[in-house]
Design goal:
The protein has six helices and seven strands. With 226 residues, it is α/β, with parallel strands linked by helices. It has a single domain (29-219), classed as Carbonic anhydrase (Beta-carbonic Anhydrase, Chain A). The chain has a five-stranded mixed β-sheet with strand order 2-1-5-6-7, covered by helices on one side. A two-stranded antiparallel sheet has the order 3-4. Helix 3 (103-113) packs across helix 4 (120-139) and helix 4 packs across helix 5 (146-167). The protein is globular and about 55 Å long. The N and C termini lie far apart (53 Å). Keywords: Lyase, Metal-binding, Zinc. Its EC number is 4.2.1.1. Its cofactor is Zn(2+). Zn(2+) binds at residues 39, 99, 102. It is an enzyme of class 4 (lyase).
């Protein structure tokens, strides 16, 4: 048997032993307090970054580039996996979680600047990000290095995903939409693993957000305000 799989099963056995009674209240229904849309990256532990170990608390979605956009014959719509908890489980908070050094943002940046060759499945995902990042690439400071460009585009991508949710007719106006960036690369100068708030409901001004939300003022940071 594959050693990796054996390790996973051993880990699951420990999980089952610890979590056995934590499903009592959620076996038949779920009413998560928030839906989080994270990037599919092995370094981004979706529940752990928020200290969550309670089944039913967070509805976690993951894809490369933390996208909320899905392409259909009718055009771009809010992805069904993100929309489901907002439409059917009473969830009233959506959090878009980007992260420093994002590979999907990097690939999209390379595609927009130099061209890129990837398998069709990856090309499809990059194709969903491209139209939303073009404006960010055009707005980058002329003197920014590659790493700085990528991490600024991480914020820009979070902004565009938040904007898409806020402007969608399918998302109720009462839903709070927040954009954050998870930093494990010492980009924002805080502690590794901290989440930095960059967007609340479409507002991206650090000064405005800190004034409006003084209780989290020390967690509001941005690399750029374009």
């Amino acid at each position: 048997m594959n050693d990796t799989l054996l390790g996973l099963l051993e880990g699951n056995a420990d999980h089952a032993a610890r979590f056995d009674d934590r499903f009592d209240d959620v076996q038949d229904a779920q009413h998560p307090e928030a839906v989080t849309v994270c990037c599919s990256d092995s370094r981004v532990l979706q529940d752990a970054i928020f200290g969550n170990d309670d089944p039913g608390h967070l509805f976690t979605c993951g894809n490369i580039g933390n996208r909320v956009v899905q392409r259909t014959d009718a055009g771009e719509v809010v992805s069904g996996d993100v929309l489901y908890p907002l439409a059917h489980t009473g969830t009233e908070t959506a959090v878009v979680v980007g992260h420093t050094g994002c590979g999907a943002v990097t690939a999209t940046y390379d595609e927009l600047t130099d061209g890129l060759s990837e398998p069709p499945g990856i090309e499809h995902c990059i194709g969903l990000l491209k139209p939303h990042l073009e404006g960010g690439v055009e707005s980058l400071p002329a003197d920014v290095d590659r790493e700085g460009a990528i991490n600024r585009l991480v914020e820009y991508n979070v902004d565009r995903q938040v904007e898409f949710l806020v402007e969608s007719d399918d998302v109720d106006d009462d839903v709070d939409v927040v954009g954050v960036v998870y930093d494990f690369q010492d980009v924002y100068g805080g502690q590794r693993g901290e989440v930095h708030v960059v967007n609340v409901g479409g507002e991206t001004s650090v000064e405005t957000l800190q004034a409006e939300y003084p209780d989290i003022a020390d967690r509001v940071h941005r690399l750029w305000e374009y």
